[in-house]
Amino acid sequence: MLVSYEWLKRYVDINVSAEVLAEKLTLAGITVDLVHHPGAELANIRAGRIMQIDPHPDADKLVVCQLDMGPDYDEFLNENGWLQIVTGAKNVRVGQIVPVALHNSSVVGKKIKKSKLRGVPSFGMMCSKEELNVQPALTDEDGIWILDESIEPGTDCIKALWLDDPVLELDLTPNRTDCQAVVNLAREVAAVLHTDLHLPEIKYTETERKISDLATLEVRDPDLCPRYLARMIEDLQIAPSPYWLQHFLNCSGVRSINNVVDVSNFVMLEYGNPMHTFDYDTLQGHGIIVRRAKAGEKIVTLDEQERELSEDNLLICDAGDRGVCVAGVMGGLNTEITPETKNVFLEVAAFDHVSIRRTARALGLHTEASQHYEKGVNAQLLDDVSRRTIQLLAELCGGKPVAGALDCNVTTPKQIRVQLRPARVNAVLGTNFTENEIVGAIKALQFNIAKDGDGYLVDIPAYRQDIELEVDLIEEVARLLGFDRIPTTLPHGAMTEGKRTAKQRFLEKTKAALVRLGANEVINYGFISPKEWERLRLPADDKRRDTLHILNPLNEEQSIMRTTLAPGLLKDAARNLSRRSSDLLLFEQGVVFIPQGEELPNEVNTLGVLATGQQPHGWNTAAAPYDFFALKGLAEALLAELKVSDAEFKVCDDMPYMHPGRTAALYAGGEYAGYLGELSPAVQAAYGIKQRVMLLEIDLDVLFAHRGEIAQYQSLPKFPAAVRDIAVVLDKEVSFADLARVIKGAGGEYLTEISLFDVYENPVLGLNRRSLAYNLTFQCAERTLTVDEVNAAFNDIVGAIEALGGELRA
Amino acid sequence: MLEKIKEIREAMEQELREAASGDQLRELKVKYLGKKGSISELSKGMGKLLPEERPKAGQLVNELRVKLEESLAAKQQELADKAMELKMAQEKLDVTLPGSAVKLGSRHPLTLVTDELKEIFLGMGYTVEEGPQVELDYYNFERMNLPADHPARDMQDSFYIDAKRLLRTHTSPVQARAMDRLCPQAPVKVVSPGAVYRRDDDATHSPMFHQMEGLVVDEGISLADLKGTLLNFVRQMFGEEREIRLRPSFFPFTEPSVEVDISCMLCGGKGCRTCKDTGWIEILGAGMVHPNVLKMSGYDPERYTGFAFGCGIERIAMLKYGIDDLRVMFENDVRFLQKF
To answer: Residue range B293-307: average pLDDT?
Structure first.
């Protein structure tokens, strides 16, 4: 919201600069984002009277003007005491008063110096409104700004025309939309600066003609229109508005149209209440009917667009049941104010804000009025607003106010009275404000306050609908006495423990482990695109496709809630690879959203890891790619860190987006916990990735459920271990895990460790056979094992391997 | 005899001086100390001496032997030292070459800030509460004193799943859930960090971002307690010399409501680009818990009061690490991530 500093000064005494005012208002909760100085660039502009206009000797399009610059100006004058200026403007006439940018002056975007135009000296420039940063009125003709006759030659235009009037840009919080009204803002200024208010006095003289004799009003849908108040004014003269009105509207970003339209805009800004003016003589039947539109009913609005309405829209009709205004949004072209308008029918109404919001949205028509109505207007203030409008129409347009008003009102005014206990104020704020200070703050707001027992009762004026409870008044006290006066203390109640839950510690530990393992954490959005399922080649019945859909997404890319972290990680990888970062170890720890019917989804804590490219290596170490086993090693280290002891990796060949021969499923305590492996080449290509990608995804809630306790410490073995090597040749079909299980089963109680140190494949070993070599460690806590004991255990192992079809490798 | 001893001694010293290798030393050892060496020969020659001369000569020969053994040992050490030095000289490395590759992992800056916030408030006796990101409208809005059609709902245009469920627009619903669980216990002291969503996507807004909110409910909690708590927090997070300033503001779930500014850490309050020449940077919103919110959670607002605050993790991360573009937070470029 924009408001002129001079305008405010008309309504309240201001003894500080615009900047200081802005800071004080901001600290009192009326945030002033910025103080604009539209005239900052302007300097040395004076009014001059055109005394003579001669054609330019060498240019058809230029004229040579002689100006009287007033008695105090004496530079570059000719023998007549006039200043010569050459101009190309078409609208100059002898006798006009115009703004003149003198030698060494500045206007918007340029410095003005004396010069010669086609050989004729020119000692300045006559200015247009644009050159002085003033928005032209709709009625202005192009060219030089012709000033009012009342401005004397020599007058400093910057001061006289308020060209240096600062404009305050406010950012109001939703509870203080009352300050959209300049009068309420002025009240706030008075409370903050402790100065006097001079709000406009509303008074005018009515004629004997009564509105009830001239017009009718019927509100058929009072649920959407709780109050409709109409007044009339006759015999007015449409004309340009006086300069002060144009200026204040300009400062608020409203263009001047004509006096009638300007008055209604001005009062809307002044009182925060929109209104509408009809040309009375165009209203069929001289009456108004307020009703819901019929489905498909059409109206041409002021912007000359035909609008089709529905039954949800409130329509203002004339007594001929013809639509004349989309209520609260925009008027109809058929009854608009024209230069010929003589008699005005004024509508000041309260409409249901939800209905207005829906109508504005449905029509895609967000006007100044609709925005006001959407925030809600106060039905109790309509009478003031209508009378203020009539007053100004009478004063500025020469109209004759018709007596009385038509008022359909189903609202009941209520007087809100709120308790205020000084002790409570200090308890809530933690302050020691005196009773006088507290009462003084409320009085500064001009609220009525009366003693009531230990406390006070405060009458809340209708324009402050935000105040309903004692705390609301406590806030008023705090902001007016100043938040800087509030001390700093700490809660002094019972001691509390700051602690994390076991789950929180587990999740933090997981992150810490990944960082220790060298991974970079990424964070992706919780929503993804349904197109990811095609890229991932998920079959139509894959359970990951069962997602929550966002009803109103910003775009398709962000329209469903993720059920897997894979797409986010793959996109991160693709983006990094395209930026030439080719070696990646990324992890994300976040939730995926598993729908549960109408209930809230199950938000599953999930870990995703993506590895691609080369493992860290330098000039002195060989490069090794991130492959299946690199990722599995990382997973094993993580499981060890999280003390998940009964984890098991199993073959997994049915993951749609993974390589069927290079993917393992992870089980914890027999429960499926996730997968890891190599991305399928087709999916890799679908993400535009040209190198192998390893991917892991683990359900951390499952891991948490199967986390182990911290192992009890057992003293280190005192007796030496016996280590035997064994190399076994057998069919590839026998997995490492199967063989390890057999060895472990056969090795007896003293076999404490089986460590694989070599896998060898060579046709000489036989078709589809390979060699696996292990270190077997035998150890007993109580004594040194004998050679015979170790040999016996070793032989049992060999026997079991042979039973499996294996043989010792020579 | 004495002549001979002297002769051998001089020859020996001469040869020792000239010896330059271990092999030569071994040869000298054989030549003088071996079974057929010069000194053995001398010893053998003792028999030819007069009995009264023998002790004297024996002593001299012995001295010669000891002297020789010592000299040999010293020479051996000298040669070994030289060889070691030579070897080390040959082993010289260019120590300015980079070390073997060790890659450090990294936490996302948003995690770093969240962890730091959690630590600060755990230290002040708060517990960490988490809640669902897909939330009921009831908890997200109604329990936060934002009934249906409240104009302030426009402030946070939301992503809806259906009429009842939406992506939470703030972490405040976690507080309502915590109060439901804890009531009538007091004090309540919780912080709730997490991801939140709003329908906004431009240079300064991300449709998903992160917040941490805090809530304290007890008898006798005041705005001054809020101010003191926030001052503590701000100084731990941004440095001991920071000051805070409260400005009135509006949130439906707090009253009074404040915006909290901190003195600019870049210019120290003198005014710079970061603080737009005001000396202050807006950092969070806070206030006293609205009586309606307390009431809905089962706490009698006459007896209990509370404060709440909420800050944007992204904003703090940007201020703390000098990140000037919100979008890089979610691009996950490793060159960015590895800086943390």
So the answer is: 96
Number of domains in chain B: 2
DSSP string of A242-277, one letter each residue: PHHHHHHHHHTT-----HHHHHHHHHHHHHS---EE
**In this complex, do A489 and B222 lie within 8 Å of one another by their Cβ atoms?**
yes
The distance of B109 to chain A (nearest Cα, Å) reads 9
Query: CATH code for A2-38+166-193?
Result: 3.30.56.10
Calculate how close chain B gets to A417, using CA atoms only, in Å: 18
The answer to whether the CB of A170 falls within 8 A of the CB of A32 is yes
What does the pLDDT look like over A283-325, one tens digit per residue? 999 999 999 999 999 999 999 999 999 999 999 999 999 999 9
**Contact between B255 and A469 using a beta-carbon 8 Å cutoff:** yes
Interface mutation vs chain B, best among A428, A476, A506, A614, most B CBs within 10 Å: A428
- Tell me the CATH number of domain A502-705, given options 3.40.50.2000, 3.40.1280.10, 1.25.40.10, 3.30.930.10: 3.30.930.10
Interchain contact, B223 vs A575, CB within 8 Å: no
Give the pLDDT score at B273: 84
Interface A–B counts its CB contacts (< 8 A) at 246
Fold of A211-409: Phenylalanyl-tRNA Synthetase; Chain B, domain 3 (3.50.40)
Provide DSSP, A640-696: HHTT-TTEEEEE----TTEEEEEEEEEEETTEEEEEEEEEPHHHHHHTT--S-EEEE
Q: Are the beta carbons of A125 and A107 closer than 8 angstroms? A: yes
Q: Please state, in angstroms and rounded to a whole number, the distance separating the CA atoms of residues B209 and B112.
A: 15
Mean pLDDT of all residues in A405-429: 93
The answer to whether the CB atoms of B105 and A585 lie below 8 A apart is: yes
Predicted pLDDT of residue B71: 85
Interface of B with A in 216-245 (CB under 8 A): 216, 218-225, 227-229, 231-232, 245
Closest alpha carbon within chain A to B155: A174
**CB pair distance less than 8 Å for A498 and B106:** no
The reported pLDDT for the residue numbered B154 is 59
Does B286 contact A at CB distance below 8 Å?
A: no
Tens of pLDDT, residues A767-800: 889 999 999 999 998 899 999 999 999 999 999 9
Do the beta carbons of residue A641 and residue A703 sit within 8 Å? no
Q: Which CATH superfamily is domain A722-808 in?
A: Ferrodoxin-fold anticodon-binding domain (3.30.70.380)
Q: Classify burial at B89, counting beta carbons within 10 Å of its beta carbon; exposed 0-12, middle 13-18, buried 19 or more.
A: exposed
Interface of B with A in 45-64 (CB under 8 A): none
Cβ contact (<8 Å) for A489 and B186?
no
Exposed (0-12), middle (13-18) or buried (19+): which is A758, by Cβ within 10 Å? exposed
Nearest to A552 among B160, B258, B338 (CB): B160
Q: Are residues B214 and B312 in the same domain?
A: yes
The verdict on B162 touching A (C-beta cutoff 8 Å) is yes
The mean pLDDT of chain A is: 93
pLDDT at A716: 85
> What is the extent of the structural domain holding B28?
2-90
Q: What's the CATH number of domain A43-160, 2.40.50.140, 2.170.190.11, 3.30.70.1130, 2.40.50.100?
A: 2.40.50.140
Do the Cβ atoms of A204 and A387 come closer than 8 Å?
yes
Distance from CA of B307 to the nearest CA of A (A): 10
Residues B180 and B275 in one domain: yes
Per-residue pLDDT tens digits for A110-136: 999 999 999 999 999 999 999 999 988
Distance from CA of A218 to the nearest CA of B (A): 28
User: Residue written as tokens 């683990």?
Assistant: A698
Residue B256 near chain A (CB below 8 Å): yes
CB proximity B111 to A under 8 Å: yes
Distance CA A274, CA A330 (A): 11
At residue A467, φ and ψ (nearest 5 deg) are: -100, 115
ipTM (interface pTM): 0.87
Whole-number percent of chain A with pLDDT over 90: 84
Whether residue B216 is contained in a domain is answered as yes
